[in-house]
Predict the structure.
Amino acid sequence: MKKIKIGISIGDINGIGMEVIIKTFMDNRMLDFCTPIVYGSSKLAAKHRKALEINDFSFHKIKSIDEANPKKANLIECWQEDVEVAFGEANTDGGKYALISLEHASKDLFENKIDALVTAPINKDNIQSETFNFPGHTEYLSDKFEGSSLMLMVSDNLKIGVVTNHIPLSEVAKTLTADSIFSKLKILKNSLVKDFSCTNPRIAVLGLNPHAGDNGLLGKEEEEIITPAINNAKSIGINAFGPYPADGFFGSGNYRKFDAILAMYHDQGLIPFKSLSFGEGVNFTAGLNITRTSPDHGVAYEIAGKNMASESSFRAAIYMACDIYKNRTLNQEINEDPLKIKRVD
């Protein structure tokens, strides 16, 4: 298999995105797995290296993907101006240049110039603009590429997807439907098989209400929405179980019995995930026709520019992007028509 080209957007320039990128590729062994292409600015990278007091690393500057050196960490210049870095500040420049980086990387991904995308963290507020009117990366990429997406948090021993992404908690109950849960279960099962090579995966489905509704005493969503969705999934061969009360499910360790978990809303899934896997987990956008991963942390303004950020989650995101791309390629090859006969004249 060819060496995988990983495009990398740098995220908020005032956060820890560039720091974790630099620290990841200071280890030359990473270049055995992929050819990295960072979308940013060499001037900006130099300012981050200076703040971090890193003198033994530099990017290989290129103008196009064709110039990428498979033995180097490559950087495409997305802008020429000298941008001021204000470590730890949430300002307009932080969002502006994060978006420029993301747009360039997404364009090359759309045109198949890179094989996968790894996104460093953005500030979901200051990145808003005429061309970015989305709650986050997942929704932005879902609008750009084919398929229906599922935010899937992944670590070595835990996979948690969420039915509703970045919406207010007050909107969750009225947004949930049996069809939306059923749709997410289909995406999750398909991803487990194709992206993670999991045979006959077992999926646990969490309830919405305390104690999963207590037979309707604490809410009707389990009986009227979630259970019908689970039954629909079972009818097409998805091994879905539940709904389970979220607190007891994680507290008892029951989650270890399943290949993946479907939570109803963002914090219901991400709080236990980050409690159990923070620093090693990866955010994967399942269900799209492209591969995109991200570290499990945010911009971390409080430690930006202080050489305190750990690159472990970003490194895991690189590994996972490579693995998923390989698994998808292998799955596609396996499922090609084996009886197709090439005509010989």
Notes: DSSP finds ten helices and twelve strands in the chain.
